[in-house]
Design a protein that fits this description.
Distance between the termini: 39 Å
Strand content: 25-35%
Number of helices: 9
Shape: globular
Structural class: alpha+beta
């Protein structure tokens, strides 16, 4: 396997559109890194630059310490799994998996050994003689992954490989990919727009937005310590609740919400210290749905009065969609919490779990 390094990588198209703005990233040998972001964030373009399917405009790309800016894709020793399975319909599963090895003129016994070993890992030995049209979506995806495995590349690249599968099959294939990666100890760069995939698969996650890297970190780092509003709202499902307001540091320090149903949140000593050191006047307080506590009646003090709009019983929990603090918010409640549209509740917040952002820059404070 190999270390992948991107230094100041940019991609500018002929019409002047900048798809990737100076990405700096190191993927360590054997690491599983996920590029995640919405459509148009530049994640797939970055992956295609690593693969050699897109040329970079500026910067340096190295694989295993070797500069590969001008190296064609077939000489980079990488294997790519696409969103569309890209299988040859007239070939059997075995022939699809063996094709790249035959082009390299490897001995037949070695081809047989590699294909059988990959098929065994993926659990598709029984379908080696079938054509792609005779396979399910999950089986086709396994064949596409197997075709990459047999090449024994230095780096595996995945471009939204699960987006064509149904929800149940996506969960199953996430487990399969995680298991295969552990068995192969492979270096993997994986692109997805699904933050659940990113959180469950990646050693580290690279959150991209409009061609820029917003934050790089482990799944829990991004969840617990988002550095920007974009990361805070993109990572986590349901998304973080946001309240606009300002810090009032005289007397008892607090965050005062700026809305028609004003409420305040006490500030912890560390929050007070950080907010006192900033010149930001307009703030946004971010609260995860699980950090909103729901009481049965409207309280006082720091409690936020709320009206239930809808509820989603999910078995293990109930998601409540409410109107609180002059805006829509989401809260997680106990599995058997009973709430009907129109019910009035009280929401309380653990001050230590609140994230504060500068409204102008969107940066964490």
């Amino acid at each position: 396997m190999a270390r992948v390094t991107l230094e100041g990588v940019r991609k500018v198209y002929d019409n002047g559109f900048v798809a990737v703005h100076g990405v700096d990233l190191v993927v360590e040998d054997g690491e599983f890194v996920v590029l995640v972001g919405p459509s148009g964030s530049g994640k797939s373009t970055t992956l295609r630059i690593i693969a050699g399917l897109e040329s970079l405009t500026d910067g340096q790309l190295t694989i295993g310490g070797r500069p590969v800016n001008d190296v064609p894709p077939n000489e980079r020793d990488i294997a790519m799994v696409f969103q569309s399975y890209a299988l040859y319909p007239h070939m059997s599963v075995y022939e699809n998996m063996a094709f790249a090895l035959q082009l390299r003129k490897l001995p037949r016994p070695e081809i047989e050994s590699r294909v059988r070993a990959a098929a065994n890992i993926l659990g598709i030995t029984a379908v080696l003689d079938r054509r792609p049209r005779q396979l399910s979506g999950g089986q086709r995806q396994r064949v596409a992954i197997g075709r990459a495995i047999v090449r024994q590349p230095r780096v595996f690249l995945f471009d939204e490989p699960l987006s064509n599968l149904d929800a149940k099959l996506r969960v199953q294939m996430r487990r399969e990919i995680a298991r295969i990666r552990r068995e192969l100890a492979a270096t993997v760069v994986y692109v997805t727009h699904d933050q659940v995939e990113a959180m469950t698969l990646g050693d580290r996650i690279v959150v991209m937005n409009e061609g820029r890297v917003e934050q790089i970190g482990s799944p829990l780092e991004l969840y617990d310590h988002p550095q920007t509003l974009f990361v805070a709202t993109f990572i986590g499902s349901p998304a973080m609740n946001l309240f606009e307001g300002a810090a009032e540091l005289d007397g008892t320090p607090r965050f005062a919400a700026a809305d028609d149903e004003a409420f305040s949140i006490p500030l912890t000593p560390s929050q007070t210290e950080r907010l006192a050191a900033t010149t930001s006047e307009r703030l946004i307080a971010g609260v995860r749905p699980e950090d909103l506590r729901v009481a049965s009646t409207t309280g006082s003090g720091t409690a936020i009065p709320a009206i239930v709009d809808a509820s989603e019983p999910l078995g293990n929990e109930v998601l409540l969609y409410l109107r609180a603090g002059g805006q829509d918010v989401t809260a997680r409640a106990e599995p058997h919490a009973l709430a009907r549209p129109g019910d009035r509740l009280s929401l309380t917040i653990d001050p230590a779990r609140v994230h504060y952002f500068d409204r102008a820059s969107g940066r964490s404070i």
